Amino acid sequence: MTIRVLLADDQALLRSAFRVLVDSEPDMKVVGEASDGAEAVRLAGERCADVVLMDIRMPGTDGLAATRLISADPALTQVRVVILTTFEVDDYVVQSLRAGASGFLGKGAEPEELLNAIRIAHGGEALLSPAATKGLITRFLAQGDGDDGRDPARSDRLDTLTGREREVLVQVAGGHSNDEIAERLEVSPLTVKTHVNRAMTKLGARDRAQLVVIAYESGLVRPKRD
Predict the structure, then answer these.
(1) pLDDT band at 190 (very low <50, low <70, confident <90, very high)
(2) Both 128 and 27 in a single domain?
(3) For residue 85, what are the contacts with CB-CB under 8 A and spacing of at least 6?
(4) Which of 12, 83, 153, 183 has the highest count of CB atoms within 10 angstroms of its CB?
(5) With 0-12 CB in 10 A as exposed, 13-18 as middle and 19+ as buried, what is 199?
(6) Domain hosting residue 93, numbered range
(7) What pLDDT shows up at residue 83?
């Protein structure tokens, strides 16, 4: 299966560099380029993109607004957005995850990291590494606009989960892989995957990154303050 990638960045030079890198891989190809968020949203549908590499800061409709539009469009449910940012720990990244992005990557990442991010996002797995998850999520995600960032509506939705699904969700929020969770809970990786998929279905999450958001915003997991 060839992963169809859309590049969204207002800098033509960067888009060209990303295109060369992506097109050099046998399992992926660039299907379009956008210089702003509005064009990215349009092309995501027209070109049947699987993954959008989205710059966060663009003129007009920025990457954050574009991500919201893509995530809210029922016709684009197959599209995964990977935010590219100059600052890897940034309030914009938190907003991006809340808007529906599958994860984020710093523009200073190595080429293999970028290619791996595309594959991981396309597969619906955790794009956020354990280090990135803990470093970013625990600092920002649950701090929100309210007293503690807790979203009562999302908290109520957790009632649909079984006890084991809640346990798995806590582990996912910690940035752990299925194999790591399986070892921690003394079950098989396949069982973990089943619990993760069921939790995603019950909570309406697009991927594991969204499960992380829900876990923190519901108050199931709280950030550790330094």
Answers:
(1) very high
(2) yes
(3) 55, 56, 92, 93, 104, 105, 106, 107
(4) 83
(5) buried
(6) 3-138
(7) 87
Please count the structural domains in the chain: 2
What would the two tokens of residue 98 be?
Answer: 């809340």
Residue with tokens 């995603």: 200
Residue 101 vs residues 23, 39, 50, 51, 129: alpha-carbon distances, Å:
23, 17, 13, 10, 15
Yes or no: say if 50 and 21 are a contact pair by the CB < 8 Å rule. no
Residue 156 sits in the same domain as residue 128: no
Mean pLDDT over residues 85-91, rounded?
Answer: 61
Q: CATH number for the domain including 35?
A: 3.40.50.2300
Do both 123 and 196 map to the same domain? no
Bridge-based pairing state of the strands 28-34 and 80-85: unpaired
Of the ranges 79-93, 119-133, 135-149, 204-218, which is most confident? 204-218
Average pLDDT over residues 173-193: 89
7 lies in the same domain as 104: yes
**What CA–CA distance (Å, rounded) separates 193 from 188?**
9
Residues 195 and 84 in one domain: no
Find all residues with CB under 8 Å of 57, minimum gap 6, and list them: 10, 63, 86, 92
Residues 55 and 26 in one domain: yes
pLDDT of 191 above 60? yes
Same domain flag for 205 and 165: yes
What pLDDT, on the 0 to 100 scale, is given for residue 226? 47
